[in-house]
Amino acid sequence: MVADQQAQAAQQSVPVVEAKNVLNSGDSGEDTSCIRGCCKSSQIRLNVPKAEFLLSQPLAEGSESTVYRASYQDQTVAAKKPKLATAEDINRFHKELQLLLELDHPNIAPLRAARAHPPDYITVFPLFEKGNLAEALHEREWKPTGTATLEIALQVAKALRYVHAKGFVHRDLKPANVLLDENYNAFLSDFGLAIQANQIEHFSKSWKAVGKPTGGFHKRFLVGTFYYMAPEVLKKEVATTKADVYSYAITINELATRTIPYSDRYTDAQCHTVLEMDYSEQQLAAAITVDQLRPVLMTAASRAPPGLASIIERCWHSDPLQRPELEEVIQELDFLKAELARNQAAESGAEMGAEGRVKGTEQTDWRQAAEASVSLGEGTKELASAAVVPAETERKDGTERGYRPTVASGVFETKGARDRMEDTHVAMQDLGGLDGVHLFGIFDGHRGAEAAEFAASAVPRHVYKSLKEGRSAEDALVATFTRTDEQFRREVDARRVLRRGGGKDWHPGCTAVAALVIDDKLVVANAGDCRAVLCRNGKAVQITKDHIAEDPTERARVEAAGGIVEWRVDTWRVGQAAIQVTRSIGDGDLKPAVTAFPEVSAIELTEEDEFLIIASDGLWDVVSNEEALAFVYDTVKDPFLVGKRLATEAITNRLSGDNLTIVIAFLRPVSTFERVY
């Protein structure tokens, strides 16, 4: 009754927006027009009697509307019933209906019918059985393949390009507004906040509230969903179609990472966001607009092609003018899709050699090559499926093991200022089912990412195998480093003939640090300039030594082994390759002087040991050990967020120019809501 009265009032006092009747129906019959006459169609019924709808259970409910599973003309459909409290709400319903009648695109949810008469306003759409993208990712925990990720990214981009070509800005693009059919094709939906692009400046200047956001963030002058709002929207500046491009980037990154923005969690139930843990809404808005904070960018570990990350970064640029046009985005996505198809075809058709190496393609999967090089024994294919081995209750000297740390770990990685990511890592608690055995490691590639990729797979397999053979942790790590180096260099030699020009100058390498926690014992092996720092009773204990040519001892060792060390430009460098590190995995042209033999340290852990920081040199070049500890103390005790804050400090405030990977391992129980010890 109230809605009916408001509708009548709206007809009398609110100006009617001119209809955009693309279908140009000559039929002015009651069934083909809304009550105002501003919405008309010759193909879609707009005054369906209420009796023809049979609404059943709600599918979703938001601040603007409720969507029901319904029956219409013997078909199961989705019926959207808006919540109309004011004449302005009814105006907005008619504007959205006008827009829906104009839209005709294969990746936009099509309008099937409507009831645009009081007191029951309803719009009818096909029922998308797979729900929306947010539900698929965070409730059903769907893991899209690289191909599926690119296909959805393309479909949404094409739908959005079409909307912009029609002269509209969507203003609420997010995974919850991307529907999926049974084949996981994407359909853009929910145009309740859409507005004509030529009206944006008027609305921005007047700052008239034009609807409640659908994502839980509502300030009087803002519309949209907070996590997906462009910086210029948060700053109340004129928002153009480029604001949609920004929202598109956040959405596609969420698809690629399966991670809720500004969090490290996959599901809503697990989610501890930056907003909840360390930021107020105002602080997060400031971080997005001023500090250019963004969600964690997809990495090489994602199933999506790495080239997608570059598109995402350009689309969420802080300057709207620097964001690409959707036509350019679509062209790049088409290229990535074709390239992925070629690579998959090459891999599926590649001939396997006697040693399990792929022949006939230069696109080597280095992790797969490492797995083929390190056999774990008959019947054991994956570390995760290995049998559980009870922890020893006694040390080898016969004394009992007492203290056992409570380990909680997390990793943050970013390519930083570099064009590509060459770091990899491992973070495995209860390695292969070995109770109380935890392995953490970072592999910082140079002259390519191949060595780091290989090591990330080979190192945990070698460690596991060595421990199962009864080796001590120290011996296991030494054997792991040297064997990984030998196997990788053999793999490179086998591939060299496949490279253009014979690959005579192709000698990729990586530095490596690996830490084993076995009950109350911490053993760390290091070759290169990654670093491990232990926080013991509030003090920084540097466990590793930086193996760089600047160190006189390392410089003398290299020269004694026949290597050449020269001062070049700003520091001491090794060989013709001019690398700074003196120990590494790979770098075949610099062997044996640049050895893979690690320095190993062992520490007995006690209750005084609070956490372990392992990081690549991109952090330690600009942050001291003591400063790193201070940041951990002053950040919520979530390992991922601690790593992210350290990386943000290094890149944004201290201008680190390198890739960064940071592993944080807490060694005693902490609360994720605890900010300071």
TrEMBL record:
<dbReference type="GO" id="GO:0004722">
    <property type="term" value="F:protein serine/threonine phosphatase activity"/>
</dbReference>
<feature type="compositionally biased region" description="Basic and acidic residues">
    <location>
        <begin position="392"/>
        <end position="403"/>
    </location>
</feature>
<dbReference type="GO" id="GO:0007165">
    <property type="term" value="P:signal transduction"/>
</dbReference>
<dbReference type="InterPro" id="IPR001932">
    <property type="entry name" value="PPM-type_phosphatase-like_dom"/>
</dbReference>
<dbReference type="Pfam" id="PF00069">
    <property type="entry name" value="Pkinase"/>
</dbReference>
<dbReference type="GO" id="GO:0005524">
    <property type="term" value="F:ATP binding"/>
</dbReference>
<feature type="domain" description="PPM-type phosphatase">
    <location>
        <begin position="408"/>
        <end position="667"/>
    </location>
</feature>
<dbReference type="InterPro" id="IPR000719">
    <property type="entry name" value="Prot_kinase_dom"/>
</dbReference>
<dbReference type="GO" id="GO:0004674">
    <property type="term" value="F:protein serine/threonine kinase activity"/>
</dbReference>
<feature type="region of interest" description="Disordered">
    <location>
        <begin position="385"/>
        <end position="404"/>
    </location>
</feature>
<dbReference type="InterPro" id="IPR008271">
    <property type="entry name" value="Ser/Thr_kinase_AS"/>
</dbReference>
<dbReference type="InterPro" id="IPR015655">
    <property type="entry name" value="PP2C"/>
</dbReference>
<dbReference type="InterPro" id="IPR011009">
    <property type="entry name" value="Kinase-like_dom_sf"/>
</dbReference>
<protein>
    <submittedName>
        <fullName>Serine/threonine protein phosphatase</fullName>
    </submittedName>
</protein>
<dbReference type="InterPro" id="IPR036457">
    <property type="entry name" value="PPM-type-like_dom_sf"/>
</dbReference>
<dbReference type="Pfam" id="PF00481">
    <property type="entry name" value="PP2C"/>
</dbReference>
<feature type="domain" description="Protein kinase">
    <location>
        <begin position="53"/>
        <end position="336"/>
    </location>
</feature>
